[in-house]
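Protocol check, entry for the methods section draft. Step 1: assemble the input record (protein sequence plus ligand SMILES). Step 2: submit for complex structure prediction. Step 3: store the structure tokens unaltered in the notebook. Ligand used here: zinc ion. Step 1 record:
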Amino acid sequence: MRMPALVAIILLCASAAHAASNSFAVRDVRVFDGDKTIPNANVVVKGGRIVAVGSGVAIPSGLRIIDGHGKTLLPGLIDSHVHVFPGAQADALRFGVTTELDMFDISRNFKAWRAQRRSLRRTPEADTWAAGLGVTVKGGAPLENAPPGLHIPTLDSAGDARKFVDARVAEGSDYIKLFIENLSEYRTKKTLPTLSPQEVCAVIAAAHADHRMAIVHTQAEWAAREAIKCGANALAHMIPDRMVGASFIALAKRHHIFIETTDDVWAGVSGLDLAQKLARDPRVAPYLSAAQKSTLLATDQKLAPWFFPNVLANTRALHAAGIPILAGTDSPNPATAHGVALHEELQILVRSGFTPEEALHAATALPDAIFHLGRRGHVAVGYRADLLLVDGNPTQNISDTLSIDRIWMNGYAVNRTPPKT
Ligand SMILES: [Zn+2]
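Step 3, stored output:
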């Protein structure tokens, strides 16, 4: 039907004004607030922050209203283990991941990330917390395949730990990441040099002296034990090499550690095709960038089919024991991709015995509580309006997180069109 020109112009201007505003309301929507489900509520956002949530909440006149019938409103998702690179945070945001916690990157773009995450400006990118450079030895993981010309500082001895960690903190590291990795868990001939137990303990002590958490890459139970005994705050991966027993669980509990899962990576290393299926999902495919497609469809050469059954069992056992478990993807490793992989991670958590609400909590309120992310991860008064509206009910059927209706970051609607190249 043809519209009179003046009416068309007025409508266009009105929709542009709505898109430019970070104030709106969602009416009659199911809300997962980061901890629990509210069956029916109105949610009011003004100037990028949530100002009212509840079933009887009045919606101020003049505010744009979105009908939430049949939909669920969630906090923007938080991926607790990624590696950022140019374009990564935009890829994340197109899938409702509004905050990413980097666990080693060489760009060290801390100043810009800090400024963005403090502001309520419109942005096309997820907010970022970052380890920056991790602590490892010359030729050790994850630098074994680094290009020869690339100089990345490494630790030479336990005596240098304090100086080395101080330099990371001076650069802007939000937490300290270290690597204990000799590849033993892959049962291959190839081995890597790694930090000694004395160096691990010295780095963790230095991190704590600088008021930073120490998060340790371990993929073998022996390495995880070493990290925990040295006082690590967290393991960066669910342990894949074996099923852990009662003594490991008791050690983890005694030391109050938390764990970032990255179970999707282990699915890929085990030769499962979860990522390929995800890439073909009609709710996913139209929004993928070239980078996301290429990493989702990449396969890992370090094939270890015994990893995934161990990971499912360990995730289940450690969760049942009350160890805090955060959803992380290790994107952009093979069989992952920024943003979209977190939805797969939530599905794996449910497969590991989490209720859908527990899985969603592991990607919203729980990382906010542990990392103190500045009023994120909740649908509650005073929190940032980083929000995800989906069709259906992911608190019953976790896969519904992929049925994205719209995303807001700082209260601004997010454009989900992927980049052309
Ligand atoms: Zn990683």
